[in-house]
Write a structure and sequence with these properties.
CATH superfamily: RRM (RNA recognition motif) domain
Number of strands: 6
CATH class: Alpha Beta
Number of domains: 1
Number of helices: 2
Distance between the termini: 48 Å
Strand content: 25-35%
Helix content: 10-25%
Structural class: alpha+beta
CATH architecture: 2-Layer Sandwich
Order of helices and strands: EHEEHEEE
Radius of gyration: 16 Å
Shape: globular
Length: 95
């Protein structure tokens, strides 16, 4: 099961994210998403766990848990196709 982890401290590493979830079971992968322009964390990441039961236990235990002074948002990741489209402001600019 793929898990979304939001509101991460910007200093969180992939390994720290893996260790946080390893307490609940086998972590197949853990990655903090980085900004491609700046190379800095974007404050969220994804964890893939082998077992659905372990993933659900991790979600229950870690959602709203404090990490570095921030309350984590942890839930099942939605597939990319289920996201609502972005709205763009197409008004003409008056520069």
């Amino acid at each position: 099961m793929n898990i979304y982890v939001g509101n991460l401290p910007y200093t969180t590493t992939d390994e720290e994210l893996r260790e946080l979830f390893a307490e609940f079971g086998d972590v197949a992968s853990a990655s903090v998403i980085m900004d491609r322009d700046t190379g800095r964390s974007r404050g969220f990441g994804f964890v893939e766990m082998s077992s659905q039961a372990e993933a659900e236990a991790a979600i229950s235990a870690l959602n709203q848990k404090d990490m570095g002074g921030r309350a984590l948002n942890v839930n099942q990741a939605r597939p990319r196709g289920e996201r609502r489209p972005r709205e763009f402001n197409n008004r003409p600019r008056s520069w």
